[in-house]
Amino acid sequence: MLGEDEAEILLTRRGAVGLVTLNRPRALNALSLAMIRAMHRQLQAWETDDSVTRVVLRGVGGRAFCAGGDVRAIHALARTGRSEEVDAFWHGEYALDAAVKAYPKPIVSLIDGLTMGGGNGISLHGSHRVASEGYRFAMPEVGIGFFPDVGMTYALPRLPHRAGAYLALTGATIGAGDALALGLATHHAPAARFDAIVDSLAEGDSIEAALAAQADVPPPPGSVMAHRALIEACFSERDVTGILARLDAVAAGEAGSSEAAFAADTAALIRTRSPTSLCIAHLQMRRGGAMTFAECIAAETRLAILLMQGHDFFEGVQAALIDKSGAPAWRPATLDAVDAAAIVAAFEGEGGAHASPERDAGRHS
């Protein structure tokens, strides 16, 4: 048996609170399949435990609430042909996200530091999301040849000002001010007051009262809200090429302005991302707003399994996390070479397991 200091996830009851503590600080609290399964089982147990009236999620270490799923482990498993274990991870992670979304009791996430990918999956779909002064949100999957998953097909298109499309296609990081303005976070409190929040919730105090008692003046909105009109105009285009053209036009037409600089930086960032991933993410943002959560999770499951058969996920993880070259060689390398029909087929479940969106890319080696 592992001691508390060694266990990857701590699941305890404190008064009225079922407390989930992510305990992998050296891995930025990235989620392993064992953590996912343990959390899911415990949520199921607490659901029928009348002594638990609310669940609280925390991460240790201060650097990250949760940096997402353990993509290094997924990369290693897929590279060695252990596809059943890879599929088990995606199914397990997405089932947990769906359980959080449907949970009948309040789930309060106390978010300090970075929250990416799967960290957003287990927090964003819950009822209360408390952002600390160090909160940083990102869905950077297009930068590793993947796509914004964990229910983001549902959540991001529902953000105002096309901010979800901006976040999906750039993978940009935003702070608490923008997150509160967009609804990604529901409350703000300093990280130093998180213990007091847990204590109050454990005593059975009203959740709103407990959060209000520890609240601080929220930070001002950041660049997303400052440039929301530009984002809405540019990211309303019907394809990624159109978005880039609009951004380029703003950058050229308003040279020297803050809008031009933001547009130029945004376009440059998008151009570093996997073309296949960009096309998938854009389709998600176009379709997801009219889909149920269950439909979104089903589409994401098909896409995740499909991309394990391609090139860019392996190339992207290698370049970003393993050799850290920062220079992935995407295949295909351009937007117009991506097979959009194959992406739509996979998204809609039409032969998705056999179609490849990476035209001429072949299988990973």
TrEMBL record:
Superkingdom of origin organism: Bacteria
Enzyme Commission designation: 3.1.2.4
Reactions catalysed: 3-hydroxy-2-methylpropanoyl-CoA + H2O = 3-hydroxy-2-methylpropanoate + CoA + H(+)
Keyword line: Hydrolase
InterPro entries named in the record: ClpP/crotonase-like_dom_sf, ECH_dom, HIBYL-CoA-H
CDD domains given in the database record: crotonase-like (cd06558)
Record keyword Hydrolase present: yes
GO molecular function list: hydrolase activity
Stated name of the protein: 3-hydroxyisobutyryl-CoA hydrolase
